[in-house]
Write a structure and sequence with these properties.
The chain is α+β, with helices and mostly antiparallel strands. The chain has three helices and eight strands, in the order H-E-H-E-E-E-E-E-E-H-E. Strand 2 and strand 3 form a beta hairpin. The longest helix has 14 residues. The radius of gyration is 15 Å and the shape is globular.
Length: about 130
Amino acid sequence: MTDPIADYLTRLRNAIKAQHRVVDVPASNLKKEITKILFDKGYILNFKFVDDGPQGTIKVALKYDPVNKVNAIKKLERFSSPGLRRYTGYKDIPRVLNGLGIAIMSTSKGVMTDKEARELKIGGEVLCFIY
């Protein structure tokens, strides 16, 4: 697999379109950090790290509106890719939907959202946009 982050986002996107409640994703440290951010920001209902085999899996419970059956995640978009890494300074970090969405970044201080990176005044690689 050449791009595990794109695979992670695609699995979430496909589960949302099929209206699944839970999706299983192969685990990695970066995917675990992204999942924690999605949970903290309220885009997913819950998550669980399962250690089965050498790699393990992440069970992600998706969040739906109980009345309209609409998911909390409207769009998942990969920004940087292995073929074209996109780095930015803290002054040029893109704003997602004028601050309503989040951009997940990989920085020297770890994986964080665009707002946290602006507060700490550090730049890094912009991984994806979520809204």
